[in-house]
Design goal:
single chain, Double-stranded beta-helix, seven-stranded antiparallel sheet, 229 residues, 14% helix
Length: 229
Amino acid sequence: MYTYDIEHSPAYASLHVKLAANQSLIVEAGAMAAMDSHITMKSKMRGGIMKSVGRMFGGESLFLSEFTATGKPGELLLSPGVPGDLSHYHCQTDRSLFIQSSGFVAADPNITIDTKFQGMKGFFSGESLFLIKASGNGDVWFSSYGAILEIPVNGSYIVDTGYIVAFEDTLSYNVEMLGGLSFKSLKTSIFGGEGLVCRFSGQGKLWIQTRHLGSLINFLHPFRPVKSD
């Protein structure tokens, strides 16, 4: 178990972890903002060569970092790459957690961090082809763009694909068109960026974010610098 605080939530959340002597923490590469000088770091490749290559094509980094408070307690400050919220989840051996590919922040070294290929349904959703799977027994932290809302699902629930942050593996899911699949709706979704949703079913927890990063990118696009002829 870790002693930690989530600070400045939900707009600019950061994770403050107090490590016991010789305790370690696995962290997404680039998330470390500050730490005590006696904490050591080493890079680690998780999931095997083929799975790591898969993450590379999915736009993710190949390496995670392991931080260890060598010889005495130490403090570690972690900050996600985009402004938003942070949440904690305690994995158990009978239940795993799926996290959006850019949402993983940190985990207990006892947690297995792996990727799950979504297949063509991930491709047509316009999202990453990979979800991060956290399994085992220990603590996991994940982040979002915007605030995080926890939703207990018991039956069926629909979420726009761009708002999904994480969900328990007790939930099954399927990406589909909102309002039914047709050529017209497919064309509207691809060119208009709307109408693609994920239908969850079963019983378990789901976490969604209150903002869509794609919407921010679309908003900023007209203001980008343009090279004149």
